[in-house]
Design a protein that fits this description.
Length: 257
């Protein structure tokens, strides 16, 4: 990652590390148990969780495997998560850049990354690194917010995310991700998409505390054409927005030998 992108990410996630532990968007969801169902982890496995954030994936997988290496670029986030999960003794915490991982080739049986790649300025490098550290026939699961194929919807979503969160780089389209996966010899085994409902105030205040900036995000979404509001399931009340929904993609791949 370039230095400016790193600085923005670390600044954003150092500010409120607790919010990513307690956020219902991150701490719950059908995708966490689905990871176990899809991957069928085994007791001898070594797992890498990239950009662990609040450690929800590491916590979910730890009972099923030998060890989980939970990595994150932001030391404050990693420290907070390590403290929160201190009773789980097979999770190891490593400060690491998703685009330049400090691990040897062919190290892990399973690599995961959840609700983070839209922050990465060079997503293709992240995919290359994930594949590099994965053993032959090892599994890779990625879960992230995605952009719609229509340019107008793509622009609207990525614009309000960047307004709310300066560490947001870009939510990619599925076709873009599949090209990166294919280029790194990661073959798709299974995938699913869903609409993920987000409580507006919780989503907004997770990264913002400036009322003027929050109002700009609110106004941008409220002034959208009706067809865009319909696509994002924007629910409004008299004064603000109650909730909305974004597209999320979950994909399971294996590394070709």
């Amino acid at each position: 990652m370039n230095d400016e992108s790193k600085r923005r990410i670390q600044q954003t996630f150092s500010k409120y590390p607790d919010k990513y532990v307690t956020s219902t968007t991150h701490s719950s969801g059908e995708d966490l148990p689905l990871m176990v169902e899809w991957a069928k982890p085994e007791k001898h496995w070594s797992v890498l969780d990239i950009a662990t954030g609040g450690g929800h994936v590491a916590k979910q997988l730890a009972p099923y495997v030998k060890e989980v290496f939970a990595t994150d670029l932001t030391k404050a986030m990693l420290n907070n998560t390590a403290t929160t999960l201190q009773t789980i003794d097979n999770i190891h915490y490593v400060k690491a850049d998703a685009e330049d991982l400090p691990f040897l080739d062919n190290t892990f049986d399973f690599v995961t990354c959840r609700i983070a790649p839209h922050h990465f300025p060079n997503p293709e490098h992240f995919i290359q690194e994930s594949a590099r550290v994965l053993k032959s026939n090892g599994l890779f699961i990625m879960i992230d917010n995605i952009a719609a194929n229509e340019d107008e919807l793509d622009y609207f979503y990525n614009t309000f995310e960047e307004m709310r969160d300066p560490s947001h780089n870009r939510a990619l389209r599925i076709a873009e991700w599949k090209q990166y996966l294919s280029n790194s010899s990661l073959t798709v085994k299974k995938e699913t998409t869903r609409k993920k409902k987000l409580p507006f105030d919780d989503w907004l205040t997770r990264t913002m505390d400036n009322e003027l900036q929050m109002e700009k995000v609110r106004a941008f979404m409220q002034s959208a054409p009706q067809e865009i509001k319909d696509y994002f399931y924007i629910i409004e009340n008299e004064e603000s927005i109650e909730a909305f929904a974004i597209d999320e993609w979950m994909v399971l791949c294996y590394k070709q030998t």
